[in-house]
């Protein structure tokens, strides 16, 4: 499920600390993510993931409405998904049936689906939906649990924007446009970021907020090590641009050893 400054209703689940997408948010998600669903944006993502999957199966954590999973299935990769929100899956089901792309309702940090996968992936900043370090570690362990030996876990995540936050400033703007105003407030002690959205809806602005736990690339590498995964690659984008000090996001790949320690 794509999370680029996500717009959601704050409902809580007993099995996860992720905030849950409600019906209204799910129904408008595709319309609000037309740019991220465009062929120009998706092509390098699909190329990257299809190459890693090879002739194996892929599992998408937080598959949402199928922005990535459905076209990846169209590339010939057998895809399965895990998704917490039944409302998001209801939108996905209007596009593709359960037999073609099976989705299990559940928490990406703990839900287990049958079989082994060549690829598990989690895109569009969605690991930040898990609001504690423990939950994020469980997510890595769950990915490792599903991977066959030699399989890969891929995460797409923004680099925390703390370099844009000078002393005394509490918010960082990330979008100022005719239809949408967005800014983040950041708790640097708890590593929590709150995205605030003011979206034009007719003659009014709709306000939404969402909470996220940001994590540094090195912190994710340690989570991977705890889960028994080895770092393989880190890029600045899906096209494979080298990751650098000024990169605003990263695509990270970890590999399950062929002869690794028990998970």
Automatic annotation (TrEMBL):
Pfam families: Methyltransf_25. Keywords: Methyltransferase, Transferase. InterPro entries: Methyltransf_25, SAM-dependent_MTases_sf. GO terms for molecular function: methyltransferase activity. One of its GO terms (biological process) is methylation. It comes from the Bacteria. Gene3D superfamilies: Vaccinia Virus protein VP39. Residues 59-151 form the Methyltransferase domain. This is Class I SAM-dependent methyltransferase. It comes from Nocardia panacis.
């Amino acid at each position: 499920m794509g999370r680029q400054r996500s717009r959601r209703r704050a409902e809580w689940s007993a099995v996860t600390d992720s905030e849950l997408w409600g019906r209204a948010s799910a129904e408008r998600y595709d319309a609000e993510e037309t740019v991220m669903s465009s062929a120009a944006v998706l092509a390098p993502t699909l190329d990257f993931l299809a190459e890693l999957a090879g002739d194996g199966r892929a599992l998408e954590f937080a598959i949402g409405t199928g922005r990535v999973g459905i076209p990846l299935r169209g590339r010939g990769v057998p895809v399965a998904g895990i998704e917490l929100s039944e409302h998001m899956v209801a939108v996905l089901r209007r596009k593709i049936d359960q037999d073609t792309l099976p989705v299990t309702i559940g928490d990406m940090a703990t839900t287990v689906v049958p079989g082994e996968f060549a690829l598990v992936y989690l895109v569009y900043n969605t690991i930040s939906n898990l609001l504690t370090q423990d939950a994020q570690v469980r997510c890595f362990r769950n990915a490792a649990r599903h991977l066959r030996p030699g399989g890969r876990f891929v995460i797409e995540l923004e680099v925390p924007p703390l370099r844009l936050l000078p002393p005394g400033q509490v918010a960082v703007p990330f979008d100022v446009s005719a239809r949408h105003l967005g800014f983040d407030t950041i708790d640097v002690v708890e590593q929590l970021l709150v995205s605030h959205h003011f979206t034009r809806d007719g003659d009014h602005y709709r306000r939404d907020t969402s909470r996220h736990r940001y994590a540094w690339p090195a912190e994710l590498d340690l989570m991977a090590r705890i889960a028994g995964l080895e770092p393989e690659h880190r890029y600045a984008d899906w096209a494979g641009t080298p990751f650098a000090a000024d990169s605003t996001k990263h695509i990270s790949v970890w590999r399950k050893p062929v002869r690794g320690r028990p998970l």
